[in-house]
Design a protein that fits this description.
Elements (H helix, E strand, L loop, with lengths): L1 E2 L43 E2 L5 E7 L4 E7 L3 E10 L8 E8 L8 E3 L5 E2 L5 E8 L16 E11 L8 E7 L1 E4 L50 H23 L6
Parallel strand pairs: 2-4
Antiparallel strand pairs: 1-3, 3-11, 4-10, 5-9, 5-11, 5-12, 6-8, 6-10, 7-9
């Protein structure tokens, strides 16, 4: 069963600044653009498309369809999809369109019907996802959209088992609106970030070592200082030994002849 997916990139600018998102009209195919008639089944086999390039693919219910597109800084993308059912179905089904960045991180949608449900009597279902504005830079932990390759995945998340494998028709279109690479919340990097590789001062002559003063030889340097714990420990040991000998002599019984 073939599926019609219409993916379009819109220009909704969403940043850290409190700027309202601007709703854009659905994108239209670029004049003279070649229609793509295939889709990948994983991230590695995703079919590459460009903004304004329509896609028409035949697939089966239950297939995961993947496309990839290039996103540059300052662009806002809107993905819309339409799945058409040529044959009747036994029950309702829920569909989903997801967008991932180059690190396979799922990007949040700011608008659009991302997971609509089609009734058993419906002949088609429309999906949509408006992405956040692509930032020129961001912290690694932030998860903000950065320039690079993005992936679109169309799939069905819930359907009756008898409808699995029915044919669907897919038509996809990716559109993009460029709003510039820098904004007030993103800032502008004046110079590329590079490590400090400046070398130190090169010495023209070998430095002269300072003379080392001769140490005075002291024969009594090994003796402990008066009043130290070693002296008191030694004196205490000697006194304990003397007391032990005297006590033994006083308490020893005299031997009989």
């Amino acid at each position: 069963m073939r599926t019609l997916i219409r993916a379009a990139a819109a220009t909704t600018a969403v940043g850290l600044a409190l700027t309202p998102a601007a709703a854009l009209a659905a994108p239209s195919p670029s004049p003279g653009a070649t229609t793509v008639t295939k889709a990948g089944t994983s991230f590695l086999t995703a079919t590459t498309v460009t903004a304004g390039q329509p896609v028409q693919v035949g697939a089966s219910t239950g297939d995961h369809l993947y496309w990839s597109f290039r996103a540059d800084a300052g662009q806002v993308h809107e993905v819309t999809a339409t799945v058409t059912f040529p044959k009747p179905r036994s029950g309702a089904s829920t569909w989903a369109v997801d967008v991932f960045d180059g690190l396979r991180r799922r990007q949040a949608c700011t608008a659009g019907a991302q997971t609509p449900t089609a009734d058993a009597s419906a002949t088609s279902v429309a999906l949509g996802c408006t992405l956040r504005r692509v930032r020129p830079w961001a912290e690694p932990w932030s998860g903000d959209p950065l320039p690079g390759t993005y992936y679109v995945r169309l799939s069905v998340t819930d359907l009756p088992e008898p409808d699995l494998g029915l044919p669907i028709d897919v038509e996809m279109l990716v559109g993009a609106t460029d709003e510039g690479g820098a904004s007030g919340d993103d800032g502008d990097l004046a110079a590329p970030l590079v490590p400090n590789t400046r070398a130190g001062t090169v010495l023209s002559a070998e430095p002269t070592p300072e003379p080392v003063a001769d140490e005075e030889i002291d024969l009594t340097g090994w003796l402990p200082e008066a009043g130290s714990r070693w002296v008191w420990t030694t004196v205490g040991g000697v006194l304990a030994a003397v007391a032990g000998v005297v006590g033994f002599g006083l308490t020893r019984r005299p031997r009989r002849p």
